[in-house]
Design a protein that fits this description.
Number of strands of chain C: 31
Number of domains of chain C: 4
Chains: A alpha+beta, B alpha/beta, C alpha/beta
Structural class of chain C: alpha/beta
CATH topology of the largest domain in chain C: Rossmann fold
Strand order of the largest sheet of chain C: 16-15-28-27-26-17-18
Strand order of the largest sheet of chain A: 2-1-3-4
Strand content of chain A: 5-15%
Shape of chain C: globular
Largest interface: A-B, 47 and 59 residues
Bound molecules: flavin mononucleotide, iron/sulfur cluster, FE2/S2 (inorganic) cluster
Strand content of chain C: 15-25%
Number of helices of chain C: 24
Radius of gyration of chain A: 17 Å
Oligomer: heterotrimer
Distance between the termini of chain A: 26 Å
Radius of gyration of chain C: 28 Å
Chain lengths: 165, 434, 726
């Protein structure tokens, strides 16, 4: 498999980050970074990562099944995650998630037909004091109201949304 | 960047640089006491550094509140084998959002803390295990690490001492359990985040089965402060055995939720009323979850306590990760209990029976109960199931799920009973026979 | 030895050696602590939490399966709190377990059922919907039903730790966690079925047995596997005379819980429709079924005629028949037919080794030695494929005792994953040994296992290499089949009598060997028992009177004058000697109508020829063997109770073999031909196992060391499959 030069560089760095013979350590980050580039964890990626990290595909499978951020099916270009854990819940997180599902017309871990947006109800993501919070890909948005949510979605659709980094 | 306005009541020590322009850059850091502690530590014997930590009464900020000095003293030194420094930046305990701020606003402080740990046990490698969702925080840390390399604080021959220290970030990928220290180490080795059998503890056989110092982000970020100001002075800020300050993450129904640095022993009610501007919409306080969602809930009348490990423990809850959720009178405690157990059921790694099946069963009963299908026997059942998990699971996640659940039922039984009144199935059916 | 630790369990004071796990200390005292995930010899898990006990001075219940005993420990395993904890654990376990015991294959021998019976509650408070997942088929023989799985991880561990195959893993997380196979939706593995047997519940079931019987409907007969030379005990489940399954039920054999795919599944040849059930006599070029009396009379008559005429007889014996049968066969050949033309398909040069050892004692390794020796060297054998139990033993020795294993092989082998291995072109092995000399010489002891790459004169070279190391060295000469060793020990050899005594001791001349028999143009009669030489070679005496005893109408049988239907190894009593010289007892489990055991056939023929061979009972013949065959004076009690008795072919005995020049070591060397059976072939027998041919796997895939090579996805190598028998 070929990846972008930036990702290849990251992989190269990853593989030398761990003590000799411990390349297996790179499995999880490698999968996550690669998923960000290709959209999901494909079978091809599993075997590629297995090969690069010196493990069996089964060992990679075991890892994929375990970590909730690794997805076997493609997500939307923008993955919208709404936290409904208690800090968010008590200030409207569940309501916001319901709103999101209704306005996007998709359920949990589903993707809009155009492949632009996917939605996920997630566990606490470390924004509790500024709840309710959502994450669009890796961007945090705090104190999100329904209105703010709609604006963000609009921006995603318009192509005016700016990712943080 | 801060997401809330600081409070004048704060004691800003580890957050002292948070509001400086370009706070994450090494220049800002160096201009504001940066790396003073490391230079000092380098002139100290390892035992002396550990003594400072002991004197500081610093207790782990990750959850268990274990005395940090003691933990470091358990790490065998001069074994001839490699040893490691691991920072736990998994920050996944619900209600907790402080490690993120420490990384975003003062990454060099964390690096310096890890360097001091590294110097103490003469380790030459460190990893910052950061939850996968914190991709930008990882990038910030990586930029900071690069800067520290450039300035000679990391890499070969740190500050001319002849000692090498390399530091890396390591990304998680969505698993609360990986915050548990041994599950974290498994994850770091590229495996499923299933905790390890203990003993051996990480101090002896941690990362890559080698001696390891493993601490929370905040704990490690505090180390430079302690070395700089001296353990005793740091300790004096807090209460006996509960030294110093900590970042308290207040969420829920207060006017000014946010992360505030306050001394240990700071009264909970003052935090709510004075630091956080009181209850939102002038509602009455109903309850507080004082240490992340694993901490048993405190009823309003139990909230007149100082915020330190021992006092909260005395109130039969725990200071945990410093996540403080304030709940007002309108809060549906059954709904909060349900959401809490849903989280633990989702995050149980599935390794052991009581956690895997217990959390799921609790989730199912509570879901049915919440959705109007509750039965009178359910309330006791919930309490009993929690009890059957307590102290019997492979790791502390089972307890973290059972303790709050038991507390919700015990303390808000009336609310559960009120649900029953609306239930369509309160009448007891025949028991299923195995 | 460190001083023992004193502790009290349930009021009983006892001692245990330091480091003993509480669960085992209790067991030694006769107190059983329930456990699912704890399994002797496999990694500790502490996952099921069934073994919680009360330990004084600790507030929480403690996990007995991981807690080492400590001085003064006071333990209670039966307090109300402990009982309540177990009950609670079982209640949790049953929440997502389908209570389908009536249709579950494991019903009646399910550890969960037993546990609930003993410790559980009669009622469940669980009224929520259960997690349901459909059952999956992972291979022709492995089915997995996730809801029944209690996640004890035994299967994962036996496959990874025990076999070194690592074909099973854990997928998903939390309550939907489940066991997953290594190829996404299917398994690529040894198909040994160890996972199925080790599963305490009915989560893993066997494709060949499922839904066929309830365990209590079957008789369970422990006997010895008939496929390879390792001599694993297999317990056959029999209903109405039919074998329904095989497993290592009580772990009482030399193999413990181990069995390979052949031992566990390839018993189905026994019920193959091609089994011969009636004697056949050729007349006018056609086979005609005849009665046993007619057939035996025909053979006896012809043999008698030829004997009178001083005709030229030859006998080819079997690697699959019992010691008793082999003994009797050579006796018949030598005493009745008065010929030394007797041989069998030799797969390893046992005789050569005996010769080279020149009478010294205590140098042949037993199966046990492989588990206990400090170091072992494997030469030119792909153990995991060819000698599966020996591979398992060595691996267990490495796992449990950190034994050092060395392997010198022509190609990659499974041992590469943990042993010190080196590649050697056939013929170059000794150069490689030299390069290992220094390390080998530092070992406290060594067992050398060698296959047919070392034979004839090279064995002497190997032994002198062993001698030169200056450490105690023992040897195993690898052979292929279930009684290859016995065939050799019992004197199915033209120049050696039972016990490797030279024929000249009895004033006889050595006879024709295997190749010479087939190549001889002047044979008058050839008697082939349980062998199929004509599958590969043709007979130079086409007009010889050919008598064949076999299970099937093989290529050889098809050319016979008389075919006598023989009973299989699962249908008779007797003894086998395994590759390491351990003698074990066969017990009749099944019966195919119309067949007779080879022992009975030989004895009946003798009777028909008016020869007194005594009672044709295995016990009687074995008694004669014990009295007359060097090294076979083994304790009967061991064998009778299902144990393995080590033969001591050389111990304390004079070296006789090479006393006079008849030990044609070098000329015999090219007669040593291993069949190179893999896990999925078993010579002729294997062709009649439909099950075996259904699970042919690509062995290459399992050798690939993932650390060294990328996965090859397409076109992975397939073993050439032996053509399906009729
Ligand atoms: C289920 C579980 C989750 C945990 N999650 C975290 C976490 O996200 N971050 C953290 O620092 N510690 C977490 N801990 C605590 C760690 O196991 C460990 O005690 C801590 O990182 C040690 O650092 P400290 O001594 O500095 O607190 C968790 C513990 C458990 C049992
Ligand atoms: S399949 Fe059987 S052996 Fe494997 S984990 Fe499940 S219950 Fe245990
Ligand atoms: S046997 Fe001890 S936890 Fe399973």
């Amino acid at each position: 498999m070929t990846f972008s030069p930036a990702l290849e560089e990251r992989f190269a760095k990853l593989l030398t980050s761990y003590p000799p013979g411990r390349q297996r350590s790179a499995v999880v980050p490698m999968l996550l970074y690669a998923q960000d580039e290709i959209g999901h964890v494909s079978q091809e990626l599993v075997e590629e990562v297995a090969c690069r990290c010196g493990v069996t595909p089964l060992q990679v499978d075991e890892v994929i099944g375990y970590y909730s951020m690794l997805h076997r099916k493609p997500l939307g270009k923008y993955h919208v995650q709404v936290c409904t854990n208690i800090s968010c819940q008590v200030v409207g997180g569940e309501d916001l998630y319901g709103h999101a599902a209704r306005t996007l017309g998709i359920g949990n871990k589903q993707v809009t037909p155009d492949g632009l947006i996917s939605l996920e109800e997630v566990e606490c993501m470390g924004a509790c004091s500024w709840a309710p919070a959502i994450q669009i890909n890796y961007d945090f948005h705090h104190f999100v109201t329904r209105e703010r949510f709609d604006q963000l979605i609009q921006a995603l659709r318009d192509g005016t949304y700016q990712e943080t980094a | 960047m801060r997401y809330n306005v600081p409070s004048p009541l704060e004691t800003r020590i580890i957050s002292q640089r948070f509001d400086l322009p370009n706070s994450a850059s090494i220049d800002t850091y160096l201009a504001n006491d940066g790396y003073v502690a490391l230079r000092k530590a380098i002139g100290m014997a390892p035992e002396a550094i550990i003594d400072e930590l002991r004197a500081s009464s610093l207790r782990g900020r990750g959850g268990a509140g274990f005395p940090t000095g003691m933990k470091w003293s358990f790490v065998p030194r001069n074994t001839g084998r490699p040893s490691y420094i691991i920072c736990n930046s998994d920050e996944s305990e619900p209600c907790t959002c402080k490690d993120r701020l420490l990384m975003e606003n003062d990454p060099q402080q964390l690096i310096e803390g890890m360097l001091i740990a590294g110097w103490t046990i003469q380790s030459s490698k460190g990893y910052i295990f950061i939850r996968g969702e914190y991709r930008y925080q990882i990038e910030i840390m990586e930029r900071a690490i690069a800067e520290a390399y450039e300035r000679g604080y990391l890499g070969k021959n740190v500050l001319g001492t002849g000692w090498d220290f390399d530091l890396y970030t390591h990304s998680g990928a969505g698993a609360y359990e990986c915050g548990e220290e041994t599950a974290l180490l498994e994850s770091l080795e590229g495996k499923r985040g299933v905790p390890r059998l203990k003993p051996p503890f990480p101090a002896v056989a941690g990362a890559f089965q080698s001696p390891t110092i493993l601490n929370n982000t905040e704990t490690l970020s505090t180390v430079p402060v302690i070395i700089r100001m001296g353990g005793a002075d740091y300790a004096a800020l807090g209460t006996p055995k509960n030294g110093g300050t900590r970042l308290m993450c207040v969420s829920g129904h207060v006017n000014k939720p946010g992360v505030y640095e306050l001394p240990l022993g700071f009264p909970l009610m003052r935090l709510i009323n004075d630091v956080c501007g009181g209850m939102r919409n002038r509602k009455k306080l109903k309850a507080v979850i004082p240490g992340g969602s694993s901490a048993p809930v405190l009823k309003a009348e139990e909230c007149d306590i100082p915020l330190d490990f021992d006092s909260i423990a005395k109130a039969k809850s725990m200071a945990g990760s410093g996540g403080i959720l304030v709940l007002d009178e309108d809060t549906d405690m059954v709904a909060v209990a349900l959401r809490t157990i849903k989280f633990y059921a989702h995050e149980s790694c599935g390794w052991c029976i009581p956690c895997r099946e217990g959390t799921t069963w609790l989730k199912k009963v509570l879901t049915r109960f919440h959705d109007g299908g509750g039965r009178s026997s359910d309330i006791d059942l919930i309490a009993e199931l929690a009890n059957n998990m307590l102290g019997r699971t492979f790791c502390a996640l089972g307890d973290a799920a059972a303790m709050p659940t038991a507390a919700f039922v015990a303390k808000f039984r009336d609310e559960f009973e009120a649900y029953l009144k609306r239930s369509s199935a309160a009448v007891e059916p025949e028991l299923a026979v195995v | 030895m460190a001083a023992p630790v004193n502790l009290t369990i349930d009021g009983q004071k006892l001692q245990a050696s330091p480091g003993t796990l509480l669960i085992n200390a209790a067991k030694q005292a006769g107190i059983s602590i329930p456990a699912f995930c704890y399994y002797d010899g496999l990694a500790l898990q502490a996952a099921c939490r069934m073994c919680l006990v009360e330990v004084e001075k600790t507030p929480k219940l403690q996990v007995a399966c991981t807690l080492p005993v400590a001085e003064g420990m006071v333990v209670r395993t039966d307090s109300p709190q402990v009982r309540q904890a177990r009950k609670g654990m079982l209640e949790f376990l049953l929440t997502n377990h389908p209570l389908d015991c009536p249709v579950c294959d494991k019903g009646g021998e399910c550890e969960l059922q037993d546990m609930v019976f003993r410790y559980g509650a009669g009622q469940s408070r669980f009224i929520e919907p259960k997690v349901h997942v459909d059952e999956k088929q992972w291979s022709p023989i492995v089915y997995y039903d996730a809801p029944r799985c209690i996640l004890c991880y035994r299967c994962v561990r036996i496959c990874g730790e025990g076999l070194g195959v690592s074909a099973l893993g854990i997928g998903n997380r939390g309550v939907v966690a489940e066991i997953v196979p290594n190829r996404g939706d299917h398994l690529e593995c040894d198909e040994c079925g160890a996972c199925i047997d080790i599963c305490p519940v009915g989560a893993l079931t066997s494709g060949t047995y499922r839904y066929k019987a309830r365990p209590w409907e079957m008789d369970h007969v422990g006997t010895i596997c008939t496929h390879c030379s390792n001599g694993c005990k297999t317990t056959l489940g029999i209903r109405n005379g039919q074998i329904l399954r095989a497993n290592s039920r009580d772990h009482s054999g030399i193999n413990g819980e181990f069995l390979c795919v052949k031992g566990r599944y390839a018993f189905d040849f026994n019920e193959h429709p091609g089994r011969l059930t009636s004697p056949l006599v050729r007349s006018d070029g056609e086979f005609k079924p005849v009665s046993w009396a007619q057939a035996l009379a025909a053979v006896a008559q012809r043999f008698t005629e030829l004997r009178v005429k001083r005709g030229n007889f030859a006998v080819i014996g079997s690697n699959h028949t019992t010691n008793e049968e082999n003994f009797l066969l050579q006796k018949f050949a030598r005493e009745v037919l008065r010929t030394s033309n007797i041989d069998h398909h030799r797969t390893g040069d046992v005789a050569g080794l005996i010769h080279a050892l020149d009478g010294r004692t205590n140098v042949l390794a037993s199966t046990d030695d492989l588990y206990n020796t400090k170091a072992a060297l494997v030469i030119s054998s792909d153990l995991a494929q060819e000698q599966p139990l020996l591979a398992f033993q060595l691996r267990a020795n490495w796992r449990h005792h950190k034994a050092h294993v060395y392997a010198v092989t022509p190609g990659p082998v499974r041992e590469d994953n943990y042993a010190t291995t080196a590649r050697a072109e056939p013929g170059n092995e000794f150069d490689v040994f030299e390069s290992m000399r220094e390390r080998l010489a530092k070992e406290p002891e060594l067992v050398i296992l060698f296959g047919d790459a070392i034979k004839g004169g090279r064995i002497a070279r190997l032994v002198s290499f062993g001698d030169s190391l200056g450490i105690p060295v023992k040897y195993v000469c690898l052979v292929d089949y279930s009684n290859s060793r016995g065939a050799s020990d019992m004197g199915l050899l033209p120049h050696l009598l039972p016990g490797y005594r030279s024929v000249s001791d009895s004033g006889l001349e050595p006879g024709l060997n295997y190749d010479q028999i087939l190549a001889a143009a002047d044979l008058d009669a050839l008697w082939i028992v349980g062998a199929n030489p004509l599958a590969r070679q043709s007979l130079a005496s086409p007009n010889a009177f050919l008598v064949v005893q076999d299970l099937f109408l093989t290529e050889t049988a098809r050319q016979a004058s008389v075919v006598l239907p023989a009973a299989s190894a699962y249908e008779k009593n007797g003894t086998f000697t395994n590759v390491c010289g351990d003698v074990q007892k066969l017990s009749r489990a099944a019966k195919t109508m119309g067949t007779k055991s080879d022992l009975e056939i030989i004895a009946l023929l003798a009777k028909e020829m008016r020869q007194d061979f005594g009672a044709a009972k295995p016990e009687v013949v074995f008694d004669e063997i014990r009295r007359s065959v060097r090294g076979y004076d083994v304790p009967l009690t061991v064998i009778e109770t299902g144990g393995a008795a080590k033969t001591v072919l050389l111990d304390g005995r004079p070296q006789v073999a090479s006393r006079n020049g008849h030990f044609r070591v070098d000329t015999d060397a090219n007669l040593i031909r291993s069949a190179r059976n893999t896990l999925f072939t078993s010579g002729t027998l294997g062709r009649f196992s439909q099950m075996l041919s259904s699970v042919i796997e690509a062995p290459g895939a399992l050798y690939r060391d993932p650390r060294k090579q990328p996965e090859v996805r397409e076109g992975s190598v397939q073993v050439e499959t032996v053509k399906q028998g009729q």
